[in-house]
Amino acid sequence: MSQAATDSPVLKAIFDRRSVRHFIEAPVEKELLMEALKAASWAPSGLNNQPWRFGVIRDPELKARLGGLTRYTNVLKSASVLVAFFLDRDSSYDYVKDCQAIGASIENFLLAVHAQDLGAVWIGEILKNKDEVQRILELPERLDLMAIVAVGHPAHRSQSSHRRPVEELILFDR
Ligand SMILES: Cc1cc2nc3c(=O)[nH]c(=O)nc-3n(C[C@H](O)[C@H](O)[C@H](O)COP(=O)(O)O)c2cc1C
Q1: What is the CATH number of the domain that holds 130?
Q2: Taking a C-beta distance cutoff of 8 angstroms, is the pair 21, 75 a contact?
Q3: What domain range is 27 assigned to?
């Protein structure tokens, strides 16, 4: 249920998006994925250096091998497609700012996925095995894994979530 106080589609997407961890067996159309990746690439970045790179994984065997590196095995295996987000060290100018930019890119991606009636979840837990991911995907060292996002057609949309009231989060308003 939307919490948006306006009709803004952007605000509605921000408030309505939930992490989706259960998917039906249906492929994600290439055009929809490309649109979401384009949204990811339109995130802001320091000096507009665009440090993000994307790896698209559809192969079931590869998904299963990556699934073995996280406790979210079934999420990775049941998603139609996995998108690995990397920081390209060759494009990096400031590690913290580049990580922030990639976070913005991932959020753009999640919102675009949601806006197209797909579902996704940001899997950070797999970073504990990032070297192994690197090895399985046969990637050069300059690509620094930031997250894997599992994408698919949601099995249901009954997920709920909560946030602390924003008033509690405002440290000062001078
Ligand atoms: C940096 C980061 C790492 C995350 N890692 C995981 C993860 O490994 N597994 C998972 O199921 N969800 C993961 N999430 C999703 C969060 O659990 C989720 O966003 C949070 O509980 C709020 O729920 P919502 O996205 O439905 O609003 C991650 C989110 C972020 C931003």
Answers
A1: 3.40.109.10
A2: yes
A3: 18-155
